[in-house]
Design brief:
Number of strands: 23
Radius of gyration: 26 Å
Largest sheet: 6 strands, antiparallel
Helix content: 25-40%
Structural class: alpha+beta
Strand content: 15-25%
Distance between the termini: 73 Å
Number of helices: 12
Shape: globular
Length: 497
């Protein structure tokens, strides 16, 4: 009898020791580090550093080589001949200079990156390049520019006519050349976002500028001092997961506002869980992606699981051109997933651990080989009883990008009990992804390149974004503080949609 009792106690002791050992090993496990992760390195302050013409030329040639040899699809929206013409123009300009600042080289290369019209291809600005700004932000509506910052000397919602005598349509064209999307909606958003930053550099402003604006049907001029703080800090949305009830026209609707798919994952999941638990029995809800610039697409799938069927398609095809960079990236991704699953690093590379089949295929492939993972069908892990079954309204805009688009396109293709409102997304719904950051040899400017291409489910031409069922584009009068014109439209017309 005593032997029978001792065996379970011994087993419990062994299990207890193994659990303690597991936690000890976990305590010494460090978060995986990926040297080329675009968020893990800090931009330096060196925009005024001088390069010789020869050094700048070599950096341009290096960047062109990178685009042509390591970008998965650089010539979808521009031909290689058109690209080469733009390169030759830059090289010709550099040949006429003895020296050039890193900041000016950044501008030239950013325009070249913009010509590719790939949202995940850009040049990283030196930290001190963003040192002076216009003291106001703009809203671009009906080809007009309006000041939307109250903390400035220009009246709120005044129409800007010119800056230092340069008309606003000309400034729009100048800034749009740097936009990394082929879509009008995304370009308008780019101009809005970067207006306060780009104008001082494009117009070579030093300390101040003269603003011509229209207000109360009169034309006014005002000399404004430039700011050292970006005015967007006054109206920038920072919450990664916020929910609330919006009331208008006697109606109320719960809103889940998702502005990022990055940051604190545990907090994000907590807020999403709370929302769907609290409003599980609501007749309708809103998922708001209008300010969602992207992050990790899995965050969007986490949200979508609450309204999805048992399974759903996320891509029609996913392709990878194999290289040492791609292998390095996917090794990091797999290690990070194991780290997130609380598995000690001692066990990360043991053969008995389940391994991503795509990683296996990549690791044995030759460099240059193109691997297609085909369509992907996601399995919904949420129990049917816990899923939301009411009406879902999705809000998108020209600021909805990357992983935000991934959720929007999944919703568009798979979800049959929902309506999309707003504007076309920032860039096409089929896009490059899995971006990494590298550095030019002389200027040390960072540049970001994608490694993969994902084709949206049902996408046949790959040139358009997610297009709403109801395209909403309100004028400046609808943008008073505290108002939300898209939500107002929804609640005013909810019985007709």
């Amino acid at each position: 009898m005593r032997k029978i009792i001792k065996i379970p106690l011994l087993l419990l002791l062994i299990v207890g020791i193994l659990i303690i050992l597991w936690f000890v090993l976990l305590a010494f496990t460090k978060e995986p580090y990926y040297a080329h992760h675009y968020r893990l390195t800090t931009e330096e302050s060196f925009s005024q550093m001088l390069l010789t013409s020869d050094e700048a030329v070599k950096d341009v040639e290096y960047y062109v080589y990178e685009i042509k040899n390591n970008h998965p699809n650089p010539f979808f929206f521009i031909t290689e001949n058109e690209f080469d013409w733009k390169v030759s123009k830059i090289l010709s300009e550099l040949a006429r200079e003895d020296t050039i600042t890193v900041g000016n080289l950044y501008m030239k290369l950013s325009k070249l990156a913009g010509a590719i019209d790939d949202s995940h291809t850009w040049i990283v600005s030196p930290l001190d390049w963003n040192s002076i700004y216009l003291p106001f932000s703009i809203l671009y509506r009906e080809e007009k520019f309006y000041n939307i910052i109250k903390e400035t000397e220009i009246p709120y919602k005044a129409e800007i006519i010119s800056i230092n005598s340069v008309k606003m349509d000309k400034l729009y064209e100048m800034i749009a050349e740097y936009s990394t999307t082929p879509l009008q909606s995304g370009t308008n958003s780019f101009v809005e976002n970067w207006f306060a930053t780009y104008v001082p550099h494009l117009l070579k402003l030093k300390n101040d500028c003269v603003i011509e604006y229209q207000y109360d049907d009169k034309i006014h001029t005002k000399r404004l001092t430039l700011s050292k703080t970006h005015p967007a800090v006054f109206n920038q949305k920072k919450n990664i997961g916020l929910y609330y009830q919006y009331r208008y026209a006697g109606n109320t609707i719960p809103v889940l506002e998702l502005n990022y798919f990055s940051g604190n994952l545990a907090y994000f999941k907590k807020k999403v869980d709370e929302f769907f638990r609290k409003y599980h029995d609501s007749e309708s809800i809103v998922i708001d992606l209008r300010s969602n610039g992207g992050g990790n697409a899995n965050w969007g799938h986490y949200v979508y699981n609450f309204i999805a069927n048992d399974s759903y398609k996320t891509v029609d095809d996913f392709t990878v051109t194999v290289s040492d960079r791609v292998k390095d990236f996917y090794n990091f991704v797999c290690d990070y997933e194991l780290y997130q699953e609380k598995i000690p690093s001692l066990f990360w590379h043991l053969p008995f651990l389940p391994q991503n089949p795509l990683l296996k295929e990549i690791m044995v492939a030759e460099n240059g080989e193109i691997i297609s993972a085909g369509e992907h069908i996601a399995q919904n892990p949420i129990n049917k009883n816990n899923r939301y079954t009411g009406k879902v309204y999705l809000l998108i805009s020209g600021k909805t990008a990357s992983a935000g688009i991934s959720l929007a396109r999944t919703f568009r293709y798979n979800y049959k009990n929902g309506i999309i409102l707003g504007q076309e997304t920032n860039h096409p719904k089929s896009y490059s992804g899995n971006i990494s950051k590298y550095y030019l040899p002389n200027s040390k400017l960072g540049y970001v390149l994608p490694l993969t291409i994902g084709v949206a489910p049902g996408d046949t031409d790959r040139t358009r974004g997610v297009i709403p069922d109801y395209i909403l584009d309100f004028d400046i009068d609808h943008y008073d503080e505290g108002r939300d014109p898209e939500l107002e439209f929804l609640l005013e017309n909810i019985d007709k949609l």
